[in-house]
């Protein structure tokens, strides 16, 4: 049975040395009880205590990491069923699948644009996480050639797909020094696949159609010395997949059932429309890795944004990076608008100005992700902070006519801002973003 925070605290050194990153041993104990940190973070815990804390220290869902050339994708270590309870921690890894019978040139042509794809969303660059290489030919040499083709176009992590241990051995040899995911082990080949996983220190995907089959295989593979595993509960319908994923998550978190305490992988299918639907469900419930057969910017964008929203802390608003944003290639004589870094506020203002085709500088201040009125009421958006942002981001060096436009809801700040920025002309803009284009045309 898992220990409580107080029980864990009694087994810790109780020195409050802060070497674990927390101010007190009690704070660390509470985090350990909640499965949010690892026992190894405390360098002073005794061997006897480590033995007693082993069960509580182990996360309910094991953390699995794929690594390649400075890139890594992590899955696992989740602690809740629903994101509103706390948060989800490790974003679903999105991979695009290629097959070795496509030929090296065709593989490079598919991988290169997917690898280069990046979209800026509320100040964050969203990208795909890696590629899955499947041995459709069942030829070790052809499999190696396909992997080499992928590596020539991308350095992102790889999932190797083959049930043939000889083919998989060739693929692992081609990725020596990396940690790809081996897919996969089933009732017929698990011993050979477990041996390869152990030899190459690579995580192993376990394939099964039922919970009993998966649990039986993970225990056998763990007995063979492999700790890092990923589960693929095979299902033929979306409903069956949802049921299996949910049952596995619930058993791992609520019952602490170790044989199913691993991240999940999902294959979204080969129909472009159905693939997007299946991937959407998998991201929400509860895949750690999703393999796509198609790369299309319009669908990948929707999946990346969905993932970002699901894997943000629900107790923290989505924020954009504070800074100066250029809209429609502004010139030095164009005005400076100021707003907060709450994402909805930022996009409301930016979209109205951009859509009207008007150039301008948008100064986004750090208001801890609050909207204009909320931040003003909380003391997070005032003249001092705005003036500090003006200086921090050197906006004066970008403009020749120093005009700054305040949101209409905080017109009360205009006098204070004039004192903070005596060289600037302070204007009060409209209350609503939709009125900004008309204001800019008439008053600026």
List the helices and strands and how they pair.
Elements lengths: L4 H7 L13 H9 L13 H11 L6 E5 L2 E5 L17 E7 L4 H13 L2 E3 L2 E3 L3 E5 L5 H14 L4 E4 L3 H10 L6 E5 L4 H11 L3 E5 L2 H13 L5 E5 L4 H17 L10 E3 L4 H13 L4 E4 L4 H14 L12 E5 L8 E5 L2 H13 L4 E6 L6 H6 L5 H10 L10 E4 L7 H7 L4 E4 L7 H8 L1
Parallel strand pairs: 3-6, 3-12, 6-7, 7-8, 8-9, 9-10, 11-12, 14-15, 14-16, 16-17
Antiparallel strand pairs: 1-2, 4-5, 13-15
Helix pairs in contact: 1-2, 4-5, 5-6, 6-7, 10-11, 14-15
Features:
alpha/beta, 40% helix, TIM Barrel, eight-stranded parallel β-sheet, Rossmann fold, 444 residues, 16 helices, 3-methyladenine DNA Glycosylase II, Chain A, domain 3, five-stranded mixed β-sheet
């Amino acid at each position: 049975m898992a220990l409580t925070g107080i029980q864990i605290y009694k087994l810790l050194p109780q020195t409050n040395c802060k070497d674990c990153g927390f101010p007190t041993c009690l704070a660390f104990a509470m985090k350990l009880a909640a499965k949010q940190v690892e026992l190894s973070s405390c360098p002073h815990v005794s061997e006897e205590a480590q033995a007693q804390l082993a069960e509580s220290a182990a996360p309910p869902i094991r953390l699995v990491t794929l690594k390649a050339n400075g890139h890594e994708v992590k899955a696992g270590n989740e602690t809740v069923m629903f994101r509103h309870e706390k948060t989800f921690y490790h974003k679903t890894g999105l991979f695009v699948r290629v097959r070795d019978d496509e030929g090296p040139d065709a593989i490079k042509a598919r991988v290169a644009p997917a690898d280069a794809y990046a979209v800026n969303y509320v100040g964050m660059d969203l990208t795909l996480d890696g590629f899955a290489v499947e041995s459709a030919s069942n030829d070790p040499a052809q499999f190696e050639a396909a992997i080499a083709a992928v590596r020539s176009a991308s350095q992102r992590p790889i999932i190797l797909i083959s049930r043939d241990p000889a083919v998989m051995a060739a693929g692992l040899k081609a990725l020596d020094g990396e940690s790809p995911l081996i897919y996969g082990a089933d009732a017929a080949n698990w011993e050979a696949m477990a041996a390869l996983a152990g030899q190459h220190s690579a995580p192993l995907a376990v394939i099964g159609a039922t919970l009993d089959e998966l649990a039986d295989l993970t225990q056998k593979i763990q007995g063979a010395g492999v700790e890092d595993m990923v589960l693929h509960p095979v299902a033929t319908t979306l409903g069956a997949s949802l049921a299996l994923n949910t049952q596995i998550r619930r058993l791992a978190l609520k019952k602490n059932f170790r044989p199913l305490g691993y991240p999940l992988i999902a294959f979204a299918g080969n129909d472009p429309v159905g693939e997007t639907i299946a991937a959407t469900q998998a991201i929400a419930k509860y895949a750690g890795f999703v393999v796509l057969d198609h790369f299309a910017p319009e669908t990948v964008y929707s999946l990346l944004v969905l993932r970002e929203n699901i894997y943000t802390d629900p107790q923290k608003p989505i924020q954009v990076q504070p800074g100066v944003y250029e809209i429609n290639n502004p010139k030095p004589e164009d005005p400076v608008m100021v707003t907060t870094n709450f994402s909805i506020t930022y996009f409301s203002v930016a979209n109205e100005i951009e859509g009207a085709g008007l150039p301008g500088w948008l100064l986004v201040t750090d208001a801890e992700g609050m909207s204009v009125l909320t931040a003003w009421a909380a003391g997070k958006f005032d003249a001092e902070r705005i003036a500090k942002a003006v200086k921090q981001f050197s906006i004066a060096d970008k403009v020749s006519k120093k005009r700054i436009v305040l949101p209409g809801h905080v017109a009360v700040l205009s006098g204070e801002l004039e004192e903070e920025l005596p060289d600037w002309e302070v204007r009060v803009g409209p209350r609503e973003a939709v009125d900004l284009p008309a204001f800019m045309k008439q008053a600026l």
